[in-house]
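## Example pair
The file below holds two records. Each record gives the amino-acid sequence first, followed by its structure token line.
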Amino acid sequence: MNYQVFAPDNCQTEIVLPASKSISNRALIINALCGDAIPVENLSECDDTRVMKQAFDKGRDTIDIHGAGTAMRFLTAFYAQKQGHECTITGTERMKQRPIKILVDALRSLGAEIRYLEKEGYPPLHILGRKLSGGALSLPGNVSSQYISALLMIAPYMRDGLNLSLTGEPVSVPYIEMTLGIMAHFGVQANRNGNSIQVPAGQYRPAPFRVEPDWSAASYWYEIAALATNAKIKLPGLSVKSLQGDARLAQLFEPIGVSTHVTPDGIELSKSGHTAFSIYECDLTEQPDLAQTLVVTCCLSEIPFRFTGLQTLRIKETDRIAALCDELAKLGYKLSASDNTLEWRGDTVEPQPHPVITTYDDHRMAMAFAPAAFCFPGITIRDIAVVDKSYPHYWDDLRKAGFSLPAQPKGGTTP
């Protein structure tokens, strides 16, 4: 199903954000290594976490993680170290195009038995769990941080622990720090010194754990605050002192005219109106999941920008750099792109009279473009169910905030 989206003039609302899927998925892996002694509280209800939970069902020999890239990386490592357990991990056709060779090679070097079932270097995988040796391992720092986190979380159960060296400049470092923070909560204290991380052999200790709200989901409410005529948006439970690197949102949206106010029970967003600069330049190496929200917000706010550090966007749910260029062209914005950069200097093309946004089976495309209704009333978002991957009640929350979302035929209002 598709939605046409109509935005209110003003947005005065309070939104309970979903739990962080990044934290939920890490906590589930570590809790499983503990033997599931104490259930994790406030787990995300999104598809990515749901397939992770299903993967731990006893007797499941084939695990279909659908489009959940985090689950693919984390479960590959988890089952590689689960001695005597044999399973196959597969996913959608898009998942079968997303590379996993670097992680598989790393696990094999530590003693894992993993076989490709179709194309070399890509899922699906057949895994026979073994005790891994551990020891010294070197990885390029510019690979997905999910590879690194997957290895770090199972490292205590390797015979010699893990001494991981990252070569070059690491990307998405906050996600690595998030992993190490959750590991410490469960009793394993790693030592990180620059690009070197040492994890001792040992085991996790069961401990109560509650997942905090998702800062990535908060980004769409920052976008709404930026684009609405007036806005006052309360986000209870959200803390600027967070495990999540995307908490940098508060600083990233300040130049776009959104103020963040800390309250006793969360944060509150309002418009500041301060957007005076010639070009917004920012390195998003550590916050790549915010790129779509920031790019769309800046274009619709007529703020020229140059965002760098986007090298991982090519291998996400879709090629997000290409998708942003194509969909923003429908709205009249001509972007320039390279492998790790997106920029807009004010160049325009003829906008479509009734734009229909293709989501490419990518939840963040749908959620980042829906607020464009402030500038393009009635904009159509295709395949609205894609938001289930991370924010299942996104459309309900938009309605609560005053948006109107009449359903449209599957094909949209225009080809």
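Second record, same layout:
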Amino acid sequence: MAQDRYQEDLQAGYEALIDRFVIWAEAREDIRAAAVIGSRARVDHPADAWSDLDMILVTDEPDRYIHEAAWLAEIGDVIVTFAQRTSGEGWERRVLFDGWLDVDFVAEPPDRVRAARDGAVDDSADAWNFLGRGHRVIVDKMGAEEALARATRGMARPPAAAPSPAEFMSVVDDFWYHAVWTAKRIRRGELFWAKRGCDEKLKALLLRALNWHAQAMHGADHDTWFRGRFLEEWAERRAVSELRDAYAHYDRDDVARALPATMRLFRRVCSETCAAWGLAEPRELAETVTTWVEGLLLEAGEPPSV
């Protein structure tokens, strides 16, 4: 099958790329260590052919490897590359090499590895997701393997905690505010912005609610991964099914259909989360916004189905 050929080519391509990288890095004095992180170093949910390659470079010149690109040609032929902020305050260089191999490079100074050796590693969810879930040192000129092993020894996934009432209401208020915002864009005919409101802004807030809901239903040890990874496995089955109706085509009528479906799902999981965690349910706000949006869409001849 054609798909099997693509998979075989990608797997072989990543293996060859790592081999070339190791040879290159071993010859450079300013590269002190390197490690594979992410799915290609994980045991739980390991990589397949479609997974990208995430790497940490430990170097005396981290800014150079992030904000310059010429060095990449020494590893492989580059189709496209750019620097991008990570989810935190750092930067990464993203590269698509020939063979359709996508690689994310993060560069760190040696002091960060030494700090890890001395136990100075935070216990944040980010540290767990990118080191604790698995890492594989492939270049080591400074004892990085021992340092990272020591840093992650006994590292456990940070337990989930119920949100504070203020944190919970911040997400709830944001959601219902932007539900009204999105409905107005539908009526105005701003389709691109209406779809962004429905399928970007509201879905990001819905993801927060789905995380809380899964943990409220299954306990703090229930692994909800991060950024929606493997959501189909950890989220409530009914919620996953309802997501099918919550996304819209690029069509005014369909955005008008998907917005109420998104509101309905958000309302339900928030209500069940509040009941499980003893939080005050903002039922009046949800009902008030739902009634207004329903009236607005009905006036325009759109069936809200809320």
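Notes on the second record: Strands lie at 31-37, 53-59, 78-85, 91-97, 101-108, 135-140. The radius of gyration is 23 Å.
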